[in-house]
Amino acid sequence: MNTPPAPAVSQLHPDGRLRHLLTLDGLPAATLGALLDAAQAYGAGAQSGSALRARLAGRTVCTLFFEPSTRTRSSFQLAATRLGADTLAFDVSASSTSKGETALDTMRTLEAMGVDCFVIRHADNGAVAALAAGARPATAFINAGDGRSAHPTQGLLDMLTIRGHKGADFSKLRVAIVGDIRHSRVARSDIHALRALGAREIRLCAPPTLLPEPDDRAGCIVAPTLQDALAGVDVVMTLRLQRERMQEGLVPSLAAYLAEYGLDGDKLRLAAPDAIVMHPGPLNRGVEITDEVADGPQSVILEQVGNGVALRMAVLEAVLAR
Ligand code: NCD
Prior knowledge:
The chain is α/β, with parallel strands linked by helices. The chain has helices at residues 29-43, 49-54, 71-82, 103-112, 127-133, 152-166, 185-196, 226-230, 244-247, 254-261, 265-268, 291-294, 301-320; strands spanning 60-65, 86-90, 117-122, 140-146, 174-178, 201-205, 221-222, 235-238, 276-278. Helix 1 (29-43) packs across helix 6. The two termini are 38 Å apart. N-carbamoyl-L-aspartate (NCD) is lined by residues 71-72, 145, 151, 154, 185-186, 240, 280-281. N-carbamoyl-L-aspartate binds at residues 71-72, 145, 151, 154, 185-186, 240, 280-281.
């Protein structure tokens, strides 16, 4: 994969507060921990009603998605609404983008209407950082997924979900990440977060054609088989098989993929008995995960979705804090 360009703008203010959230790569563990603590408090309902809605009252958050989304976009909208922000869900497909307007011009047009924070998904690596570099200094940017490069709020909500089951000390945790890691911005952000939080082992398992480049797997163990990857792990993260990879000849067939890399009940028994099973969605049921596992007692997939709202509240509040 192409190494994404380093963000041209700094994610942190000089005093260490979060200015944008573009990637988890290089963010201090203390920053991650503070966001997770704030999200945990929101998830526990520490505040409600008018006090909650006062937090971002008068601020405007715009979701600007150049790629499809179910979970990420909806949960950002809910998060912003719960904190009292005005929200604008910009519909790219029905906009002047289809008349050839550039993403930069679209962003600047909306910024001129008073948007304080953009939540952006784009197909190109580095696109959100590039838009942030072209904006006014006070406008905040949150990366909701850029190319294969990063999906930082997904990485954080995954850590929040792990913490909820395994506690805040990651130093004993063995984590397996299974599937199309090479094309996954989710896996990249999960690896960045797990490394920063000091996970004991990060095992990667994928067909050789879907393993990440050496730079992206630094500090991880590449497991030769799914059975090796799963032995004794505390957390299993499965990933969507991007079906277009089959057309590219990177995977022989869906049936062969399921047999070798799909997570079913028998394989899951190799993990620790209290292991949790995660997936960022959308699921390809019967390809990377069977119904039995996706809907089984060890699955925390819907909990991940729920945690996404609390985590995104914490991130919006951090970047919009006055
Ligand atoms: C992912 C994405 O778009 O990066 N979905 C998500 O945000 N939960 C994962 C995927 O598309 O496979």
